[in-house]
User: Fold this.
Amino acid sequence: MTRTLRVTIARVVLVGLTMGLTTAVSPSASAATDEIQGGCFFDSDRQAAVTADQNVGVLGDHSVTRSDLLTPIGATVICTIYVNGVAAVQATFGDGTTAVQAGAEPISYTANDGDVVSLCTDVHYADGTVDRCTGCEACSPQFPPQWILDTLDALFTEVIDPALCPKLASVAGSYGPFTVKPDGDVYLPDPLDLGLNPIEDCPPYGS
Assistant:
């Protein structure tokens, strides 16, 4: 198991940020019953060893468009990657006449640690209906930045755990809601199975 405390904090921050972003950039309502199944995707890696803020990868779309739930309808799908709310790279899939859109294109865009990177799908249906920002999501907010997470991880594994875990192991037992295991791992009740335990994970990690 990785640093559970660090991962839990990161999850809380990222979930809160994602909820705020998806609330602020919500899909617009469509007057028709057209809909898209699937949509845009991207996969990119930061080229830190070459150019610190350059990201390269692919941007693509796998989707099917329908009208009235059952009837196929042609559409053009526009996939856009935004960095801090500004369009950084875009690709178009489908010719507007077919109900299946698929493909992928190589991309390159600039984003640093801490930048909010999001992906949006705009759908232009053959009947003139347009759905903008369908499926917008914060795909790689990277907040806190990775260097902060790495620093916290090193702080626990190299400084805090070596000093704290032997002391915890020496007082193993139950203390109210807390349970200290013989290896120093600390547990709290988790009736909803949220995966919070151990709140302190001592070596050997994951045991």
Q: What stands out?
A: The chain has two domains: 1-29+145-207, 31-138. The chain has two helices and eleven strands.
